[in-house]
Every structure is written in C-alpha cells, then in structure tokens.
C-alpha cells in the first residue's frame, strides 16, 4: 500500500513449534533480502513514486509537477526524522520477536489492535491494488500489435470527438485549457473508454457489471500471486529475482532513452526547479509525509513480517539505512525518466510543462503511452514499459498479501497449519472484492478506496505503533533488544526520534490531514456525501480496532483496575512480575528514560 516496493515472503513454521527455532530464515542473497524489505508503494511503486504522490497508494499516480521540487524539502526532512527511524524500528521489532504484525505485540498486549489495524489496511489495499496491475497487463497484451491501439481514432471505443494529438498545440487548445485535461486524444480515450468504459457510468451509484477482459487480467494476476506465495520462500525467492531486478534495468533503459529526446532538458529543468512558496501549502507537507510511508512501506505490517524471517543476528540497522536510501534515490532518479518524457511531450505540442503534467493514473496510462507511441519502435518500448509496471505491481502486491498471511497465520495456528488453503482464500477474496473496481464505474470505487483505506488510517496506525514501542514497552528496553541481536545499542539520535520526534511528527500530520480534508473528486465528478461517509467508515474501520482491542483486553483480564492495567501493558514474558507488584510502567523512571 502504496509500494514503494514489496518483495518476497516466507515459509511459516509448523503449528505448535517454536517460532524462534522453526521460522524459516532468508535463503536469498543479500540483494534479495534487501529488496524484500523495500516495500509498497504501487503504489506503481517506489520507482516512479517520488515525482508523484503514489497511491498503495500502490502506485496509483498523482503527479504534482507544479510543487514537486518544493515537495523534495519536506520529503527529505520527514525521511530523516520519521521514515528511516520507523523503518529501523519495524525491522528490529520483527527480527527480535520473530512474529507477524499482530503477535509481535506480545511486548505490550494492549496494543495488539494496532497489528490488526495494519493487517486490515493491507487487506483493503489488496482489494484495489491488483486492479492497477490488471490494467498494466491489459495494456501489455494490447501492445503486441504493429500499431499501438492508442495512436489513432479509428477504433470501436473512440468517440466522434476523438482528435489526432498531432493537431494539438497551444493555439489549438486556447482559453487556458491544459493538454492533460483535454480527454479527447486517442490515448485518453483508450484508457477511459477502451479500458475502463467510464463513459458508460454516471458515477459511483452507477457501477454496472465487471468487464470480462479486465476480469481475466485480474484473474491472471491473482493466480500469479497465489503461486508466488503458497509455499513461501521456496517460490517467492525465485520470483523476486525477476520482479526486484527487472524494473531497475527497464528504468535505466527508459532514463537513457528519455534524456535523448527533444525537450527533455526543459522537463528535467522543471523537475529540479524549487518554488519555495509552495512550502506554505499544507498539502505539500501532507503529501510528503504520506509518500514517505508508502515508499518505505512502514505501517503496513510488511517490514515486521519480512524481518521476522531474518537471522536473529542480522544487521537490520545497516539494512534500514541502505534499503531506505536505495529506495529514495531510485525514486528520485526515476523523476528524471518521467520529466524527460513530460518535457518531450511539451516540446511536441508546444505547450508548457505544467500543461502536460497530469493527475491520477493519467501519467502512467495516458501520457506515458502516448509519448511511447510517438517513438520509433513504439511497440518494443510499450512492451518494455508495461512489463516494468507489471513486475513492480506484482512485487508490491506479494508483500502486501504476505503481511496479511503472516500476520494472521502467526496469530491463529489453524491458519498456519493450512497455509496453502489460507493463501488461496486471501487471494480469491481479494479477487472477488476487486471485481467492484473493474466495472464501468469501477474507477470511482478504486478512487474511494485509494483515498480512505490507507490515508489517515495508516498514519494513525504508525503513530500508535511508535507510542506502543517507545513509551509503553520503552525505548531503553527496545534498545537492549537491539543490542542483544547486533552487539550495539542505537545512538541517541534514533532513540530521540523514536520517543519524541517521530510521534510528534505523526500526530501533527494526522491532525492536519483531517482538518484539511476536502470532499472526494475524480476529474470533474464530485462524489456524493454518502460516498464520503462510506469512505470515512472504511478509514475508521481499521482505526477503531486500536481502542476496541484495548477495551476488549482490559475487560478480559481478571483483577483490580491496577492489576488489569499492569497485565495489559506488561510484556507477556514478564507477567510473573505483575503478581509480585514489580511493574516497570508504574515507575516514573520508565517514562523518563531514553
């Protein structure tokens, strides 16, 4: 969720056996291990993620050309004070405790609801993330032609108003109309009319039936995911070699080719230009904050699940620094590939860069395909581009689904005993619910889920996670756990971020995101009030699990109020100390120690 970059998965220990002794460690080279810890993103993914606000946030792409480089400043700031520290925290948490997102909270039982919340969020993202991958597969199949289907207006899906893009220039558009908003090009009509059939829906209240072509593509995606996950690392370790490395090769090829195109320099110059006035806008800071978690994958339960299969003495500190740095550098470099294409398109149509930049999936599924169609050997470039999107998407989706599977299987031994059947159930369930997103009005459902399923809710979940580990479990005790694994304690900087800086930052972003909420829209369509209420219901359904489990846990523990509280906030392996009246959390020193 969105990736961002999800990678491999694991083989669970046999039911009833010791997780620490039986949990299958990574049997991949270091490259595979690192890629496995670079999560979400779809969003489509961490690769084109940076110059874009990714959705699962996966990567449903929302270009912010006009504020991108102003976005760079808060992005780097939040990466340093929140992204890396929380990335490190989740890796250490999973590696030390050898548990998934729910059962890892044996360190502070009352916070187990946080684990269920992130698992539910990852499941929500899986409902619609696979749809974006299915679009990529549909485009890939459509690319195996001598003439790409989005190059002309002579197709069955085209409207009478479809216009050859070669005729467009600044004078033709006129009246300040942006090229990206002009939805009558062959590429735009192929996406909205040929793929989505959006013209046959009047809104979210008028969905229609699932499209059989997209249903088949979605089924293929789910089958690939199932067979990549059902045996854990035995299969995923092989799959990840393709899904984790091929996108880098393709990105490099696209980058080299992109910067040689006419107008590419203007696009790159726009990419690197900083407008400091944008820093006054709250949306820039909120987008930067959410993008950090989508690109690094913190808060989705993925990192905890992946790290739980590391060797106990693995240097997760090095992994956190190296992986998060590679992720963000890759995202930054991908911006050159994207903006070179934007510059090229602006040059071709003689318009400004900001007039070409588009929002939503338009960058990936309209503008980029249109640019590719103008190149020599366009079929080859289209196949290469959509193979990259497909592998990125599958890579991320595998990680999100593994977070769900590992998190619940570790908590319920029956599911662990029947992992293959459970994996099939999760895969089939996401397929069925994703069918709502491939109807004629499915893009409205997808937009609703993308906005609410993993927005404010994921920030809230990470906030509660930081509070649970740093304050209730204790930074000092957490640091001792890390020392036990790697032989050294985290430095003062990390401890300060975990206890004060990161939680304060997260609390600020959660509050601002709620205050600055605006009714949901898609292009010119404004979602009705009831749809926004459903969206907030989806967001609250995961967040409510945190206080709900606190109440549940407190009510199911016997004893006085003080004894119940003690059992709820004390690690399970220290419950014998509660009976002796020795509760660390009842001492002031516990809360003041860093």
UniProtKB/TrEMBL annotation:
<feature type="transmembrane region" description="Helical">
    <location>
        <begin position="239"/>
        <end position="265"/>
    </location>
</feature>
<dbReference type="InterPro" id="IPR000175">
    <property type="entry name" value="Na/ntran_symport"/>
</dbReference>
<dbReference type="Pfam" id="PF00209">
    <property type="entry name" value="SNF"/>
</dbReference>
<keyword id="KW-0325">Glycoprotein</keyword>
<feature type="transmembrane region" description="Helical">
    <location>
        <begin position="212"/>
        <end position="230"/>
    </location>
</feature>
<feature type="binding site">
    <location>
        <position position="327"/>
    </location>
    <ligand>
        <name>Na(+)</name>
    </ligand>
</feature>
<dbReference type="InterPro" id="IPR037272">
    <property type="entry name" value="SNS_sf"/>
</dbReference>
<keyword id="KW-0812">Transmembrane</keyword>
<dbReference type="GO" id="GO:0051583">
    <property type="term" value="P:dopamine uptake involved in synaptic transmission"/>
</dbReference>
<keyword id="KW-0472">Membrane</keyword>
<keyword id="KW-0813">Transport</keyword>
<feature type="transmembrane region" description="Helical">
    <location>
        <begin position="285"/>
        <end position="309"/>
    </location>
</feature>
<feature type="binding site">
    <location>
        <position position="392"/>
    </location>
    <ligand>
        <name>Na(+)</name>
    </ligand>
</feature>
<dbReference type="GO" id="GO:0005328">
    <property type="term" value="F:neurotransmitter:sodium symporter activity"/>
</dbReference>
<dbReference type="InterPro" id="IPR002435">
    <property type="entry name" value="Na/ntran_symport_noradrenaline"/>
</dbReference>
<dbReference type="GO" id="GO:0005330">
    <property type="term" value="F:dopamine:sodium symporter activity"/>
</dbReference>
<dbReference type="GO" id="GO:0046872">
    <property type="term" value="F:metal ion binding"/>
</dbReference>
<dbReference type="GO" id="GO:0006865">
    <property type="term" value="P:amino acid transport"/>
</dbReference>
<feature type="transmembrane region" description="Helical">
    <location>
        <begin position="421"/>
        <end position="446"/>
    </location>
</feature>
<keyword id="KW-0769">Symport</keyword>
<feature type="disulfide bond">
    <location>
        <begin position="153"/>
        <end position="162"/>
    </location>
</feature>
<feature type="transmembrane region" description="Helical">
    <location>
        <begin position="321"/>
        <end position="346"/>
    </location>
</feature>
<keyword id="KW-0915">Sodium</keyword>
<feature type="transmembrane region" description="Helical">
    <location>
        <begin position="452"/>
        <end position="475"/>
    </location>
</feature>
<dbReference type="GO" id="GO:0005334">
    <property type="term" value="F:norepinephrine:sodium symporter activity"/>
</dbReference>
<dbReference type="GO" id="GO:0030424">
    <property type="term" value="C:axon"/>
</dbReference>
<keyword id="KW-1133">Transmembrane helix</keyword>
<feature type="transmembrane region" description="Helical">
    <location>
        <begin position="534"/>
        <end position="552"/>
    </location>
</feature>
<feature type="binding site">
    <location>
        <position position="295"/>
    </location>
    <ligand>
        <name>Na(+)</name>
    </ligand>
</feature>
<feature type="transmembrane region" description="Helical">
    <location>
        <begin position="496"/>
        <end position="514"/>
    </location>
</feature>
<feature type="binding site">
    <location>
        <position position="396"/>
    </location>
    <ligand>
        <name>Na(+)</name>
    </ligand>
</feature>
<feature type="transmembrane region" description="Helical">
    <location>
        <begin position="114"/>
        <end position="141"/>
    </location>
</feature>
<feature type="binding site">
    <location>
        <position position="395"/>
    </location>
    <ligand>
        <name>Na(+)</name>
    </ligand>
</feature>
<dbReference type="GO" id="GO:0042734">
    <property type="term" value="C:presynaptic membrane"/>
</dbReference>
<keyword id="KW-1015">Disulfide bond</keyword>
<keyword id="KW-0479">Metal-binding</keyword>
<protein>
    <submittedName>
        <fullName>Solute carrier family 6 member 2</fullName>
    </submittedName>
</protein>
<dbReference type="GO" id="GO:0032809">
    <property type="term" value="C:neuronal cell body membrane"/>
</dbReference>
<feature type="transmembrane region" description="Helical">
    <location>
        <begin position="72"/>
        <end position="93"/>
    </location>
</feature>
<keyword id="KW-1003">Cell membrane</keyword>
<feature type="transmembrane region" description="Helical">
    <location>
        <begin position="366"/>
        <end position="392"/>
    </location>
</feature>
<keyword id="KW-0532">Neurotransmitter transport</keyword>
